[in-house]
Specification:
The longest helix has 18 residues, at 137-154. This protein has nine helices and ten strands. The strands form two sheets. It has a six-stranded mixed beta sheet, with helices on both faces. Strand 1 (19-30) and strand 2 form a beta hairpin. The protein starts with 18 loop residues before the first strand and ends with a helix. It is of the alpha/beta class.
């Protein structure tokens, strides 16, 4: 089954709906600018949810609210039955949420392995005092290094594990950033424009990788992406924003036929 975008409808998830993330009436205002206006949606466990819309629609603002960079003006967020708005930004990863960024946030002088190990730091067992006294630090570093290497191997990046991040192809660095996000063993993986700057072949490969990681790691994925072919191919559900408000929600086939989406986001061009 396909819509005007030529995208197949993914198979429906099996079993009862179990929301992992519940966004309830979230609004964000920066002075007189309304970035999000009463946004509500649920993300079920095991789902890949695409969050799409034109530039400036509020997608990254929503990501920043979930990751606690921004405090909403009003509304509530429940994650795994906990009030997420009570969680400090530095503790988000420990609660099971990890994200990538539109612009690469890697340390160019560190090796690929070291960059991924940084993502695993929330899984460390040493407390502040033990780390300060260097008690068990070497064994901890070995454990985290092994974990990081296993992830790189899974993503086909083991052969560059000990190379500096500087100078590597852009598509490769995108995968390294995903590897770093996985290193914290998240329940929710938030991908912010992961296909930006990739070739068509790399975009197709990335879409397959995201579904593979979702299945193998039992992840729930929140995806912001402008490559509509990828969004339509891998999303179980899609939420469409325009000027900070939700204008549509549904499966890929339904969204691809929605006239509001075609007018606001696609402009009838595809």
């Amino acid at each position: 089954m396909s819509g005007p975008l030529g995208a197949p409808q993914p198979p429906a998830l099996i079993g009862p709906r179990v929301p992992l993330l519940e966004i309830s009436d979230i609004s964000v205002r920066f002075g007189g600018i309304v970035a999000l206006d009463g946004l509500s949606f649920d993300l079920d466990k095991g789902q890949i949810l695409g969050l799409i819309g034109p530039n400036g629609a509020g997608k990254t603002t929503m990501f920043n609210v979930i990751s606690r960079v921004y405090q909403p003006s009003s509304g509530a967020i429940t994650f795994d039955n906990d009030n997420l708005l009570n969680v400090r930004p530095e503790n988000i990863a420990r609660h099971g949420i990890s994200r990538t960024f539109q612009n690469l946030a890697l340390w160019s002088r560190l090796t690929v392995l070291e960059n991924v190990m940084l993502g695993a730091h929330t899984q460390g067992r040493n407390g502040f005092v033990r780390s300060t006294l260097r008690i068990g630090v070497r064994s901890e570093e070995r454990r985290l290094g092994m974990r990081a290497y296993e992830i790189l191997d899974e993503l086909g990046l083991a052969d560059i594990a000990f190379r500096p991040a500087a100078g590597l192809p852009y598509g490769t660095l995108k995968r390294v950033e995903i590897a770093r996000a996985l290193a914290s063993n998240p329940k929710l993986l938030m991908l912010d424009e992961p296909a930006a700057g990739l070739t068509h072949i790399e975009v197709d490969e990335l879409g397959k990788l995201v579904k593979q990681l979702r299945d193998q790691h039992q992840l729930t994925v929140l995806l912001v992406e402008h490559h509509m072919s990828m969004v339509m191919a891998i999303s179980d559900n899609i939420v469409v924003l325009n000027f900070g408000s939700k204008i549509a929600e549904g499966g890929p086939a339904e969204i691809s036929r929605d006239p509001r989406v075609i007018e606001a986001y696609l402009g009838g061009a595809e």
